[in-house]
Specification:
By secondary structure, this protein is α+β, with helices and mostly antiparallel strands. The chain contains 17 helices and twelve strands. The longest helix is centred in the middle third of the chain and has 20 residues. It starts with a helix and ends with a strand. One of its GO terms (cellular component) is mitochondrial fatty acid beta-oxidation multienzyme complex.
Length: about 475
């Protein structure tokens, strides 16, 4: 795909003015970015005979750079804190939940079903089933939609979903040869067998196997994929750095204004109380320009500053049938409406999930791009975001890859990620989906909009998109 895109751009099928227009709108004026969406009289997406499912509340621990204040904890500690924060914020009785689902990516082997361990630690009834899902960066999206499915099927009325990632302490394995030797030692019955096995160990066997943020099918790191994708769509280094500055600036403004109300304070055992994200760094374009390429060296455009950083954090949301929520006295924040999962080539289209998912979910909901008041896309890399925006704004891409007559259309930047995103707030892989959905619900309330759209890419060439509808105020 990359070569086809480059050839098309070189041949003039995609005009330079198109790329320039999208590039210049990657940063809007402050007034535009802070403009409130006016409430519109639109139809509700409620359907006769279909159960309304609502987001009652969403919380998250502060998202922290890995290796900082959370460094000595374990994943279930963060998940437990998020669950306790949800209980505290909602006043939910601990036995009033039918099911608990958590998403995570790099699992701690001691707590492989982190949903169950965190739930027990948070004091939920041991009668409540819990399971853990994994779908790369859309793991908590999968947790939420699994909750929606359980409620829609009549199995449950109240489900807690969430996600957690702990990059400060990832599992590091012995080499395969060493593992085989150690397993054999465990089975050895005589001293001679044990000595023979110990004598077979070589220095090379002691080399550890480190986890990598790379595709198993292609052996390529996600950063390399992002760099190639940016090059394929003609995304410049300046565009990426501008978008990263935008993300950090908006996140800082949102944090200072108290808009990130989903963040709960967390007393870290033996350390201080943490009450806000610590990865927000507002830099100048001059400072950004000093960084060298992080993946494709020396001429790549993806750097540490225009990429999301390794993050520790957890999130949790309370999802209910509308009937149950109202019966318990809750005022829901939003309706969870249509959603889709998509999948494509994990090499050249690894990070294009939003481009594929957005038109499909809009079609399911019977909406157009102009109907959406709030957009929240996962920012894995600035280059990935800009590539998606350019793909969505390309007639050629829409016709060639999406089977459409014309382009999807790119989200207006005055509606897009206005409180920062994963580049600035952080990206704990398994927890980001809940942050996105909760942010859409809060922005719809603050800005007076009716419809929001969440979209995210994920490893394996997969993606997710969901439409959220504001609950009547």
């Amino acid at each position: 795909m990359a070569s086809m895109l480059l050839n098309t751009m070189r041949s003039g099928s995609v005009s330079p003015s198109w790329a320039m227009r999208l590039g210049t709108r990657s940063l809007s004026t402050t007034a535009q970015l802070q403009a409130h969406v006016q409430t519109k009289s639109k139809k509700s997406l409620a359907r006769p005979g279909v159960k309304n499912i609502v987001l009652v509340e969403g919380v998250r621990t502060p998202f922290l750079l890995s290796g900082t204040t959370y460094a000595d904890l374990m994943p279930h500690d963060l998940a437990r804190a998020a669950l306790q924060g949800l209980l505290h914020k909602t006043g939910l009785p601990k036995d009033a939940v039918d099911y608990i689902i958590y998403g995570t990516v790099i699992q701690e082997v001691k707590t492989s079903n982190v949903a169950r361990e965190a739930a027990l630690g948070a004091g939920f009834s041991d009668k409540i089933p819990a399971h853990t899902v994994t779908m790369a960066c859309i793991s908590s999206n999968q947790a939420m939609t699994s909750a929606v499915g359980l409620i829609a099927a009549g199995q449950c009325d109240s489900v807690v979903a969430g996600g957690v990632e702990f990059m400060s302490d990832v599992p590091i394995r012995h080499s395969r040869k060493m593992r085989k030797t150690m397993l054999s030692l465990n089975k050895a019955k005589t001293l001679g067998q044990r000595l023979s096995l110990i004598g077979s160990i070589r220095l090379a066997h002691l080399s550890p196997e480190l986890p990598a943020v790379a595709e198993f099918s292609t052996a390529e790191t996600m950063g390399h994929s992002a760099d190639r994708l940016a090059a394929a769509f003609g995304v410049t280094r300046v565009e990426q750095d501008e978008f990263s500055v935008r993300s950090h600036t908006l996140a800082q403004q949102a944090q200072d204004a108290g808009l990130l109300e989903d963040v709960i304070s967390f007393k870290v055992p033996g350390r201080d109380i943490v009450s806000k994200d610590n990865g927000i760094r507002v830099s100048s374009m001059a400072q950004m320009g000093k960084l060298k390429a992080a993946f494709v060296k020396p001429h790549g455009t993806v750097t540490a500053a225009n990429s999301s950083f390794l993050t520790d954090g957890a999130s949790a949301v309370l999802v209910m049938s509308e009937e149950k929520a109202l019966a318990m006295g809750y005022k829901p924040k939003a309706y969870l409406r249509d959603f889709v999962y998509v999948s494509q080539d994990p090499k050249d289209q690894l990070l294009l999930g939003p481009t594929y998912g957005t038109p499909k979910v809009l079609e399911r909901a019977g909406l157009s791009m102009s109907d959406i008041d709030v957009f929240e896309f996962h920012e894995a890399f600035a280059g990935q975001i800009m590539a998606n925006l350019k793909a969505m704004d390309s007639d050629w891409f829409g016709q060639t890859y999406l089977g459409r007559k014309s382009k999807v259309g790119a989200p207006p930047m005055e509606k897009f990620n206005l409180w920062g995103g994963s580049l600035s707030l952080g990206h704990p892989f398994g927890a980001t989906g809940c942050r996105l959905v909760t942010t859409v619900a809060h922005r719809l309330q603050k800005e007076g909009g009716q419809y929001g759209l969440v979209a995210a890419c994920a490893a394996g060439g997969q993606g997710h998109a969901m439409v959220i509808e504001a609950y009547p105020q």
